[in-house]
TrEMBL record:
Belongs to the RNase D family. Keywords: Cytoplasm, Exonuclease, Hydrolase, Nuclease, tRNA processing. Signal peptide: none annotated. It catalyses: Exonucleolytic cleavage that removes extra residues from the 3'-terminus of tRNA to produce 5'-mononucleotides. The gene is rnd. This is Ribonuclease D. Its cofactor is a divalent metal cation. Exonuclease involved in the 3' processing of various precursor tRNAs. Initiates hydrolysis at the 3'-terminus of an RNA molecule and releases 5'-mononucleotides. The keyword Hydrolase applies. It is found in: Cytoplasm. Coiled coil: none annotated. The keyword tRNA processing applies.
Length: 389
């Protein structure tokens, strides 16, 4: 299998790829033992008619772990606006490139998002699209490969290349469907989120917002905020997974028990042994004290379980969402999440489901339903929107 290990070969392939209408891209990486993803392999393919004389023909593997290899030719291709960069489920790939090179491939096309827009269901997998669109089957035997080990076997290389060769057929089909349905603007809104640096930046002071808890006490949340801030900073600085510092359930326990000494930490049921002494223990105790003494108490989040709201309206919004999604041939989850529906039911209006193309498909009727202007009626096996009496 063609594997590029030299910068000059990568440069020749990427220069030739600039003449192609699109290039399909995928990566293999490891993240089990690090905070930041470790890039292990890059797969690239252009339409067969665009092969020219670049090394490896129309599809290649790039070994970013090869000594002396610079990825700058690839990044130059990513900046070239004349060639569309096609990914499937691009978010993790883009996070790698943003962290390593502070750039996003442009213009960008994500086949997973496009498939949801085109009615293929929620979070549709690559294997499903290969089977339904490319009419092929994938060999899954190398799915759990350690991509950092060398050399790669022929089977592993073939598995990796299949992630970009079938993607060509999928992209061409979905791109045509978007033109046919006039939904290119819908995809563009979703791509804009993927191209927003804020999507990939985790600020330690905001890390607590991603921790799920049933407790809404402002003091508890203040301690949780400081514990999450310390964990995020510690993990980022040392490039280790958050769970190696302490897991969410241990953090919630600490915010509840408010330990003040290493002896208190030793009585924790959930805290890792390594976290009961040394730097982590000191950080925990300092975080608990900071949260306990803080005068800047967090406001309870609107989407927390148990938050007062209109449960009946939430249920009606779920029915409306299903009906609207079915009518539009769009995955419901792409239009609105469960937490967004609950937020609308509590009176919030600054939610994505009420903006852009989502407002056209669902949001406007959601607001009319919340305002009592319309009702839902079961007619046969379908749900219809009718004027409220």
């Amino acid at each position: 299998m063609p594997t590029i290990t030299r910068t000059e070969d990568l440069a020749r392939f990427c220069e030739a790829a600039k003449c192609a209408p699109y290039v399909t891209v995928d990566t293999e990486f490891l993240r089990e033992r690090t905070y930041w993803s470790k890039l292990c392999l890059i797969q690239l393919a252009v339409p067969p008619a665009s092969t020219g004389k670049q090394p490896g023909g129309d599809a290649v593997l790039v070994d970013p772990m090869a000594e002396g290899l610079s990825l700058e030719p690839l990044y130059d291709l990513f900046r070239h606006t004349g060639t569309v960069k096609v990914f499937h489920a691009a978010r993790q790939d883009l996070e790698i490139f943003f962290h390593d090179a502070q750039l996003f491939p442009t213009p960008l096309f994500d086949t997973q998002v496009a498939a949801m827009v085109c009615g293929f269901g929620e979070q549709v997998g690559y294997e499903t699209l290969v089977r339904k669109i490319a009419k092929a089957d994938l060999d899954k035997s190398s799915r759990f490969t350690d991509w950092s080990r060398r050399p790669l076997s022929d089977a592993q290389a073939a598995y990796a290349l299949a992630d970009v060769t079938h993607l060509r057929v999928i992209y061409e089909y979905l791109a045509a469907e978007l033109v046919k349905t006039g939904r290119q603007a819908w995809l563009a809104e979703e791509i804009a989120v993927l191209e927003d640096p804020e999507t990939y930046i985790t600020r330690p002071e905001e890390a607590w917002l991603k921790v799920r808890t049933r407790t809404n006490s402002p003091r508890f949340l203040a301690i949780l905020r400081e514990l999450a801030r310390f964990r995020e900073s510690y993990a980022q600085d040392r490039d280790i997974p958050r769970s190696r510092v302490y897991k969410d359930d241990a953090m919630i326990e600490l915010a509840s028990t408010k330990p003040t000494s290493e002896a208190d930490l030793g009585r924790s049921r959930l805290l890792l042994r390594e976290a009961r002494k040394g730097e982590i223990a000191s950080g925990i105790l300092a975080a608990v004290k900071a949260g306990t003494d803080s005068k800047d108490l967090p406001v309870p989040r609107q989407d927390e379980p148990g938050r007062p709201g209109n449960a009946a309206l939430s249920d009606l919004l779920r029915v409306l969402l299903k009906a609207k999604a079915d009518a539009a041939g769009v995955a419901p989850k792409l239009i609105a999440s469960a937490s967004e529906l609950d937020a609308i039911a509590t009176g919030q209006r600054d939610v994505p489901a009420l903006q852009g193309w989502r407002a056209e498909v669902f949001g406007r009727d959601a607001l009319r339903l919340a305002g009592g202007e319309i009702a839902l009626s079961a007619q046969g096996g379908a749900v219809k929107v009718v004027p409220a009496r």
